[in-house]
Structure formats: C-alpha cells, structure tokens
Amino acid sequence: MNENAPDTVEEALARAQRHGRAAGAETLAALQALVEAGGLAAGSPLDEGALATLRETVVHLRRWLDPEGGRDAASVLAGVSQALDEEIQRWEEKSKDDSDARTILRAFLAVREVVWEFSSRAGAAGLERSPAPSQTAPRRVPVEG
Fold first, then answer.
1. In 13-31, which positions are buried (b, 16+ CB within 10 angstroms) versus exposed (e)?
2. What pLDDT shows up at residue 71?
3. Which of 6, 19, 58, 118 has the greatest number of CB atoms lying within 10 Å of its CB?
4. Could you give the count of Cα atoms lying within 13 Å of 77 in the half-sphere of its Cβ?
C-alpha cells in the first residue's frame, strides 16, 4: 500500500484509526476461524447454543470495526463478554475430562482478557457501559496441563 505522508497530525491520526480498525477486523476474522475450528474439533454444532452466540457476537464486532459501521462499542463488547463467559464455562467442564479442551479454554480466557481491556478502555472514554457481571475483572480459572 502506497500512502503519501500526512501533512497534519489529524491526517496521521485518521490514517492510524483506519488501519487500526482494519487490523482489528482481521484479528476478529482470525478469532472467528479459531472459534469455528474449536467447535468443529469438539463436534459441536456451529449454529447452536453458546458457540453460535459467540460467533454471532464476533461478526457484530467485526461490523462495528468496519469504517462504515459506526456500531455502539459498549453493547458489542457486553455481548462478546457474555458469550465468552458462557463458552469458558462450557470448556471448563470439558477440560476436566479432555486434555485437548484445555488448549481451547486457554484461548477463550486470553480473548476474554483482551475484551475486558477493550471494555475498560471504552468506559474510560466516556462510553456508556452496562452493569453486567462480565464488566468486572475476569475471573481466574486454573488450567492444568
């Protein structure tokens, strides 16, 4: 990509924002693929239950990051947090009997940490936040193996 150097700070910041949103959308595309891979590996239907909720939330978050989107960050992040919490609970149970499930659990825990950071920063920017339990610091889950 050949972009001319910006003439002002505002132009540079606008370009940084465009690239940041594009990078975020690509990261979410990778996350969606990982969620789908985890579901397929576990034999879970991708269009049912908490996994479907998580996939749908990631899609909404990707739309929010779209430069043409303009979605409400707080509501998107709250939906992501809720879906992640449900999936983490499910994978915690599976990881008791399946050592491979621990890897997927760790991935969900890491994603939840990132979403929590986004949520806390969104609140600091003056965005309205819902008082959902997932808005508190993520609960630590012991993962062995």
1. eeeeeeeeeeebbeebeeb
2. 54
3. 58
4. 26
Q: For 11-58, how does the pLDDT look when each residue is reduced to its tens digit (9 = 90+)?
A: 888 888 778 877 887 888 888 888 888 888 878 777 777 677 777 777
Which secondary-structure segment (H or E) carries 53? helix 49-65
Q: Is the dihedral of CA 129, 89, 28, 103 positive or negative?
A: positive
Q: How far is it, in rounded angstroms, from Cα 31 to Cα 45? A: 17
What distance in Å separates the CA atoms of residue 40 and residue 47, rounded to the nearest whole number? 11
Structure tokens at 91: 């994978």
Return the number of other C-beta atoms located less than 10 Å from residue 4's C-beta. 7
Tokens in use for 103? 């890897």
Counting residues of the chain whose pLDDT is more than 90, the rounded percentage is 1
Rounded to whole angstroms, what are the CA distances from 10 to 5, 6, 19, 25, 30?
Answer: 12, 8, 14, 22, 30
Cβ(92)–Cβ(105) below 8 Å: yes
Q: Which two tokens stand for residue 126?
A: 């003056």
